[in-house]
Amino acid sequence: MNLKNAILRHEQDIIDSMSEDNGKPYFESYMTELVFTINEINFALKNLRKWVKPEKVKAGFLVYPSKSCIMSEPYGVALIMGSWNFPFLLAFSPLVGAVAAGNCCIVQTSKNTSAEKVIQSIICETFDQGHVAMVDGDIEISKCLVEQKFDKIFFTGSPEVGKIIMSKAANNLTSVTLELGGKSPCIVDRYIDVAVTAKRILHGKFLNAGQACIAPDYLIVHRDIKKDLYDAFAKWINQFYSGQPEKSSDLARIINDKHYSRVKGYLRDGTIVTGGSYDDQALMITPTIMEITDLDVPVMREEIYGPILPVIEYSTLDEVKQIIAHNPDPLGLYVFSKDKNMVKIILDSVPFGGGCVNDTQYHFANFWLPFGGRGNSGIGSYHGKFGFDAFSHKKAVLTKSFSFDLPIFPPYKDKHKYWKRLLR
Description:
The protein is an alpha/beta fold.
């Protein structure tokens, strides 16, 4: 509750820091940084008594007479390494699970964000420094931290850095949760509500100017619906940003020069359908839809992290699977269709971290669901009870009665015959 109150006291400071970073719209900052974080805290407060209770489990005849349970105990000292794209949420959301589980924590923010000061203030106001402490995001400090002996490391960032974190953690046999990225596909069937589909895809893609690890990274669109979808995209982009996205206060900018140059370079990789303009001074790229025919161009090999949405057409589901196989194990997957059989085939046959049917990104907002990746997109999951579990060791405890012993002690003689009868 102290953490919640401190966050609410610093509400405007949080919003201001997001605006300073990359001009993130007030509403986007409020929803993605404040609302999601407060909901995570509320969920933990409501359910923590239940989570910490030993979980009773059944015991088979081999351990009769006994009772068994699973106890949750904190790992000890955890290192939480946040990310720049949602600096407040991605520091405090895992911290809620870590503290709820009883751990002491060191929190490190990204060097690419100005939210560091407000995060530091909230942590200092809420926690004793021996319980939760914060360090800045300097790369040399990061290198030093991961060399230390922690009991748990939680990292949010790129797969490339995730590999380094995991290799360093291996030296101390430290448990890791890695929340990484990847190219999250969005599959659009021909049997859809075109207007609603276009609106939801654009909102999911251009939130924070596409700088989200679970933003739809590229579209795989049925050829029969592609033209109608393009028309709907143009309509919604015009409506979202009042016909002037380059001047809109409802569209964030790219975080820094390095990322801006990288994202701008992708504009060369396909045929522009909508958008494609940019402002070097403002680090702004307008919402861009582009058609792709070559899966080996950079925009289809690398995670975009910007307001560019490549589109690839398909005719059969086998083509869809082949396209996704170029970038396997995405963090997110989205499919739009009224055809339940088509949806089932995709969900059953394509490995991915998590996702939505007929929407994008909002599986992240349901704290009853685990959030995490697999393979190249991460290890482990968190949110709600899953966050508590991510920072807890599950300790097995069996309590035996003194009243009776099964025939398992020497001399064995013919006791195996008794067990043979039981196995029948």
